[in-house]
Amino acid sequence: MKPVYTHPNLFFVTNAKNILQHYSIKAIIQHEYLSGAAGDLAPIDTWPELWLVDEADYPRAKTLLDEAFNEQNADDWHCSRCGENNDAAFELCWQCGQDRDPSL
Length: 104
Ligand SMILES: [Zn+2]
Prior knowledge:
The structure is a single chain. Helix content is 25%, strand content 16%. By secondary structure, it is an alpha+beta fold. The chain has two domains: 2-70, Alpha-Beta Plaits (2-Layer Sandwich); 76-104. The strands form two sheets. The protein has a three-stranded antiparallel β-sheet with strand order 1-3-2, covered by helices on one side. Strands 4-5 form a two-stranded antiparallel sheet. The radius of gyration is 15 Å and the shape is globular. The N and C termini lie far apart (36 Å). The model has no long low-confidence stretch (mean pLDDT 84). The protein binds zinc ion.
């Protein structure tokens, strides 16, 4: 087990997990429900973390996530429901959860 990604917003961590899943890389989310304990722990300790089941996947997983999260502005899209600007890596609006293309 090895951590590969963390973010204070669980939505981003879940998205990272979905990306890896798409490439058949097994990963699990830790601290998914810890945010309620933020008063007792250092805030960073409550961030959801994405852990690789197989450490051998790390270089590939890291590359995939770097590519997914660094391709900003390349193919950003606007939500048809709420108008939010979303990163190309996301299939759902991070603001309201609307599908990227509701007609599909
Ligand atoms: Zn939206």
